[in-house]
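The authors assume throughout that readers already know how a fold can be written as discrete tokens. A single example would do more here than another paragraph of explanation. An entry of this sort, consisting of the sequence and the corresponding backbone structure tokens, reads as follows:
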Amino acid sequence: VLGAAPAGSRWKITRFAVTVLATGALSVLILRGVMPSSLEGARGGFRGFLGWLGELHPLVLGVSIFVILSEMGRYWSRRWGLTADFLAHAAAGSTKRSARRVVLTLAVVAIAAFLTRSSFIAAYRVVGPSMLPTLEKGDRVLVDRTAYGVKLPFSKHRFGAKLPQRGALVVFPMRGLPGTTGIETVVKRVVGLPGDKVSFIQGALVINGQPVRGCDAGPYVDLTSTVTVRGRLVVEYLGERTYLTVRKPIEAPFEGTTVKPGEVFVIGDDRGMSTDSRVWSEGHGGGVPIDGLDGRVTRVLLGARPDGRLDFSRLLAPPLDLRVRQPGLDMTLTDQRIADCV
């Protein structure tokens, strides 16, 4: 039978928990409020390095700040106490040992974060409107990098390679794709698998000669970005997935292409604003190599509002919530139309 913990032990546990939470909260505030963004650090130098690190490796930067703050707190708590224990440790060179411990801890954190991000899980920020209304510009999404096999760092080989499902949201770099000039990493939706014949007739997706089911949910207008998006909101049903798309009143036809072995055909949910498999290879269509996929989007890590502020109401939300977010507008009728379609 386990007895109750002594009062001194409970106090130590409580103090430890409070210290960790306070240090973690302060680390987040510094990471979000003090560290420069990638745009603020665009001129280079040390601020540019911090902006790059915070954009691509926020876990490394956040944990590093946490470790540094923890060691600073440990040092000054001893210093202010002026205890014999502190003086004895200082005389024995504990300050040097503490510095070595910080460096070693940061190195371990950096290596662990790099391995985690490169092989298991990563976070990406949406920078364009091509996935409206599913993903907002500025959304941070969580990507499972093991969804299509485990990929070792600095290697293209995957262990346990898997085929994506139709309708999945995938992340991949555009560098090297036929007919593309971008180098950024983008998120799109998989609609075609190897061997599929993919085409569009009057904006409607057709796979292997069968139109993909869709339901019109009314007009769609987005006035929050620098580019005004207008079209028809359509609920589309592909495989086991149901999601929202935006179609222009007049869509350019796409006669179709057959997806090559080892590739997938991807498109954006905002069909009129997306540069995707339809336009690559000079408009003849092009796929994305499956071994080039970074992973599958599983959650919205943190949402973004049109004014750039973070939207904590979407913390760890599923990316397929079938909602249109237009702050300040009554979306009751649109929500009802979507519900009727579903």
Observations:
- The first helix runs from residue 7 to 34.
- Residues 1-5, 37-43 have pLDDT under 50 and may be disordered.
- The chain has six helices and 17 strands.
